[in-house]
Write a structure and sequence with these properties.
Elements: H1 2-17, H2 21-35, E1 46-49, E2 54-59, E3 63-64, E4 73-78, E5 82-84, E6 87-90, E7 95-104, E8 114-123, E9 129-139, E10 146-148, E11 153-155, H3 160-185, H4 188-209, E12 216-217, E13 222-227, E14 231-234, H5 235-238
Antiparallel strand pairs: 1-14, 2-4, 2-13, 3-12, 4-7, 5-6, 7-8, 8-9, 8-11, 9-13, 10-11
Helix pairs in contact: 1-2, 3-4
Length: about 260
């Protein structure tokens, strides 16, 4: 009603004042807004990306279990388009934002590093943004890391073999040093035993003082996202918007004398 009264008032002003340009423009805009309401999307306009869709991604922000924290944002881009009924819906280069759900550093004695991920939002190159529910279904690590698909967890390397080797090597080195000292003192057997014990103890102290292998995922690491809920788009969100000015043609040089 207010818009109708405004249009009537502007029309009367145009008659009384000789129809100035600003009044004509305002009246035309008010009439257009009443005559052409925005059409709500219809059910047939929907394009649905089903759940369990696999989307390959590339990590755009490096991750490390040394510095990662729960709630930290993770940024990726899609590597391959997603199409529905021969229509491209999610093009290459779309942006995916994720979140760290678990960040555990390796322990000193036992316990491996862990990083958990989920994916929360999708932004198309045209700016359309959708909330999504996605899990990490795979990743290209260094071949020594493990992965729990059900929990979306990357698990770091174990260090049991390395720790045992450290203790053994330290014990052997200590035994060698002890043998030399024992020979010079006339007690080679006792010196070797004492040196081996001291060396093994030193190796154990070193193992207890150091952590296991950290998880390091550099920029460019490949991920595999799997959707756990459908993603609904409307046709106008995924179809290119035509340029109202029409196609742009290159300017021609008129040449001399033109």
């Amino acid at each position: 009603m207010k818009a109708d009264r405004l249009s009537l008032f502007l029309a009367l002003c145009c008659v009384a004042l000789g129809t100035p340009a600003w009044a004509q423009s305002a009246a035309a805009a008010a009439s257009a807004s009443q005559a052409a309401p925005t059409r709500a999307p219809q059910p047939g306009d929907e394009i649905i990306v089903p759940s369990s869709t696999q989307i390959p991604l590339q990590l755009q922000s490096a991750l490390s279990s040394r510095t990662a924290y729960v709630g930290e944002p993770v940024y990726c881009q899609t590597l391959y388009p997603v199409t529905i009924n021969d229509r491209m819906v999610i093009p290459v280069g779309s942006f995916i934002k994720g979140t760290i759900t678990q960040a555990v550093r390796p322990g000193h004695i036992k316990g491996k590093a862990r990083i958990g991920l989920r994916f929360d939002s999708l932004t198309l190159p045209n700016g359309v943004t959708k909330p999504i529910s996605g899990v990490l279904a795979g990743f290209a690590g260094n071949g020594k890391q493990n992965f729990k698909r059900q929990e979306g967890q990357i698990i770091g390397e174990g260090t049991k073999g390395r720790d045992a080797e450290t203790v053994l090597v330290s014990g052997a080195e200590g035994a060698g040093i002890g043998s030399v000292a024992g020979i010079s003192g006339g007690h080679s057997g006792a010196g070797a035993a004492a040196g081996g014990t001291a060396g093994a103890l030193g190796g154990l102290v070193y193992v207890l003082a150091t952590r296991g292998k950290e998880i390091v995922l550099p920029t460019g690491t490949d991920f595999q996202l799997e959707t756990t809920r459908p993603i609904t788009f409307y046709r106008y969100q995924v179809e290119p918007t035509p340029d109202p000015d029409g196609p742009a043609f290159p300017k021609r040089d008129p040449g001399p004398g033109m």
